[in-house]
Amino acid sequence: MPEDFGRKWQDTVQPRLEIQGLMRRFGGREVVSDVSLSIAAGQVSCLLGPSGCGKSTTLRLIAGVDMPDQGVIRVDGRPIVDARTRVPPEERGIGLMFQDFALFPHLTVSQNVAFGLPRHAPDRQGRVAELLERVGMTRHADKHPHELSGGEQQRVALARALAPRPGIMLMDEPFSGLDDRLRDDIRDETLAVLKAEGTAVLLVTHEPSEAMRMADEILLMRDGRIVQSGAPYTIYNNPVDLRAAAFFSDLNVIRGRVQGALTETPFGPFLVPGVPDGAEVDIAIRPQHLAIDFDRAGKGPRSTPTHGEAARGVVERARFMGSESLVEFRMDFDGSILKAHVPWVFLPKPGTPLWLMFRRDRCFVFPHVGSQPKVA
Fold it and tell me: Same domain for 317 and 287?
């Protein structure tokens, strides 16, 4: 679905969850600052950011475990938190899933799933059976949590959270305790179940790959604020700043000073329209867009319209990563290290000189703002 169509569709649908201007202070410091978002039924949004940026606190405020100092939270258009309203957590219609699963050890799988349902609810056992079948746990109904694997416990936790049919599911790093080989399958299965239930999902993670895999929308959070939001493709390919770009992958960064809408680089002049003369910029290149000029290896530099001029580097080390090789070069022009991802196996010996070029249409240009995170 084209992204602009998706936005128009969301604009015409009542959000299942809507937050405006959420703020929470601890000890005079704003841990959550002016956070606003909306999630439709069946949509998966991901709060993505480093540890300590305010993601989990935001989830706690929505769940009612903590109270905001300011802001409005609505569920299906109804305020559950505002200047006059404080709906108790159990009346918000919100499900919770955490990384430790929080299953009751003395209860069976069936009893755990039934726990969130009223004792005399009609078809209580039918709902439990339906969910156990949906998550593939029917044959484990009479087991206790200690008899299950991590992936099986996660499935039970999902079924228990969905049992009362919450319109919203909050998930705080729910897959972090799973084995890497199992994690992708469990994430895909969980996503399929949540979509089938039509649940609005807000997932918290610090892993970009998880956000890219699961989310319809990524909300990139930093220092208590949402600094960028959009579809995974948009966030990855149009990062708002250097720190946002670096959060999703390694970066090579070349600094330059602008003169006449151009900045000189070892790879030739680079066009930076709209930047005033004298300003410093950072040109960021992902390692997969730094190319080795195999045709000119050992023959000297050349230039192309797409890649500009070649620059010489000497191999520092090379490692095979499974589907590609990571090669690090010490560049002649300033002694800096640049990294290149090369498809499949390419392991040149240290000291090998090679010419490098980069895809100019795949670069990011940002104003230089002083101290930057380590990105290469």
Answer: yes
